[in-house]
Design brief:
Layout lengths: L1 H9 L16 H37 L8 H14 L5 H5 L2 H29 L9 E5 L3 E2 L2 E2 L1 H16 L4 E5 L10 H11 L7 E4 L5 H9 L12 E8 L3 H15 L6 E8 L6 H18 L4
Parallel strand pairs: 1-4, 1-6, 4-5, 6-7
Antiparallel strand pairs: 2-3
Helix pairs in contact: 2-3, 5-10, 8-9
Amino acid sequence: MALLRYYSSFCGGAAVNLDLHNFRQSPCEAAKHATRKYKIMKKYIYTLLALLSFLYYLWLGFHNSFRMSVLPFWIILSALFLLLGYLHRLTLYHKIPAFMKRVLKICFCACLIFFLFIESCIVWGISRDTGENLDYILVLGAGLNGDKPSAVLEMRLEKARLYLQEHPQAMVIVSGGQGPTEPVSEAESMKNWLVEKGIPDSRIIMEDKSTTTAENIRYSFTLMDMEASVQKPLNIGIATSNFHVFRSLCIARHIGKESFPSGQSYRIYGLPASFPPLLLPHYMVREFFTICVDALLGNLG
């Protein structure tokens, strides 16, 4: 009160009627204020995420002529962020029964958890260490530019080349068929690239009939010399893009049960090749859907 009297005299003696209760907020008013701030902050965050998702969609589209698979995902994600940010303003949302809202939230959370679990498995594959003393390296195809390996395929080949130079006992299988617009098979293009980089022709085995990852692995396993490794485990490394390692290992371990004779022990390792960082989020999302399809087809066991 002394402070108020001082303030009154400072204002020239004018009557200053201040109610101390104006400086206080009831718990109910404080909760409403906090809720309002939370909604505003949530709206801004979701709007920013929607904008970033939309810009990423445009960037991917302009750099790849809008022909990339799963590209619409980023538009759908952008719309979802906007919906989450402005959901409280929709009249229709407030008309939905409370129990139905709970069901929708549970379904959404379950889908999100499943998505994050698969993505964590992909990240696990990215961080895998290369096995030692490999008998075979299997390089999976990834498209051509003319008769030359694409940039992504070169990264896989470079990963294999470095290992082959350090381990002269290892053989390499280059796996990939010929697409309808490709002048040569991916296997032949990969073999030529490795020979140019100094890998002897005698260490390279070609598999040029496959068109999918499962066929890459299944057909390549039939080309391996089982008799030479009966007395010891057969160590196999799969050189592929880092985001692709987890799915490749799952497929390889499933197919290995069918391809290798009983009594033949084997170990399969990933050789994760680098990948353009800006493209990685999109390909990790695409890999999620591909894993789901392979699981439905029975390729993952």
